[in-house]
Amino acid sequence: MASRPTSIFDVFPPPFIKNARAKIRAMTEFAFKVWLTAALIALDAIWIAVAGYSFDMGSLVACLGFTALLATVGFIYSRLRPDERLAIMGAETAFLTIFSAGACVFSYLMTSTDRPLIDTTLAHWDADLGFNWYAYVAFANAHPIVGMLSSALYQTTLMQVALSVVILPMLGHLDRVREMVLLVMASSILCVVVSGIIPSEGALAYFHPPAAFYMQNHPVVDLAYKQQFFDIRDGALTHFGLTDLKGLVAFPSYHVALSAILMIAFRGVRFWFWPVVVLNTLVIFSTPIDGGHHLVDGLGGFALALMTAAVIVRARARFRVPAPASEIRDLAPQEA
């Protein structure tokens, strides 16, 4: 069985290997994530410099410090005190932390291109599907318990992703964590690119109902929250940092994409899959209320996640370096 490279400096084959497939096989997934993250951060930095934006470097230092701490945990339990579960938790959480920060900055930069909004089209598609955003939110307003549950559910998504990086390794599904993090990284970039090319302000901002209507249940996303979307488009916002970034992506919904990824990550995991599916189905239902989304925002996010997973799961099975025998033994009893 082929062994994995022992450092990121071993991920590229010698220059005399010309076959592209052989080169891809020689790269580890870890190295791919490193280079993808580095490329995203470099793109952000260049764009910020060229566009003349200013950035809160203190927030960047704090993020890099936390990422370095997590990476150190991964290194310690990978090399000094071998424990593959803890090593994966540290390394993959480090990737989630730094890449999510870079992707959020990237979403601001893509939003600054100020392309024409497509909300009229999205609202028409919702109507064609028989979905009325006003009526949907009005139902939640008329039933405060629904609004309260919606807000609570909507805010579980990021916590679910973080906990999954801990739970899956503890259940023995080590490789599933690597897959999930790669899906999160790829889906975030795709959502940001699509939302930059065909941006949406979201149903809440598009319909712009009176505060007495949309604030009855105090949704997570309100019009004040959405203001940064318009400020970056108008050029009013030229300084930002990691401590005050907000989710600007409306179509396709990244929130729904994450819910879909969580369902995919727990496929075949006994006693966990169906509770995760039920929880995240409820999260998806909450997005028009607490995320201010059109229905088709969610459908687009779900479809994007499924298509991304179809490509990545197949590509990993075809190109990845085989897992160590120890990991195969850990996984074998757990797989349904």
Keywords:
70% helix, 1% strand, two-stranded parallel ribbon, disordered C terminus, mainly alpha, 2 strands, 336 residues
Describe the structure.
By secondary structure, the protein is mostly helical. It has one domain. Helix content is 70%, strand content 1%. It has 16 helices and 2 strands. It has helices spanning 20-26, 29-51, 57-80, 84-111, 119-128, 133-142, 144-154, 157-170, 174-197, 203-207, 211-214, 223-234, 254-265, 273-290, 295-319, 325-331, and strands at 54-55, 239-240. The protein has a two-stranded parallel ribbon. Helix 2 (29-51) runs parallel beside helix 4, helix 6 (133-142) crosses helix 7 (144-154) and helix 13 crosses helix 15 (295-319). The longest helix is centred in the first third of the chain and has 28 residues, at 84-111. It is globular and about 60 Å long. It starts with 19 loop residues before the first helix and ends in a 5-residue tail after the last helix. Mean pLDDT is 87; it is low at 1-18 and 323-336.
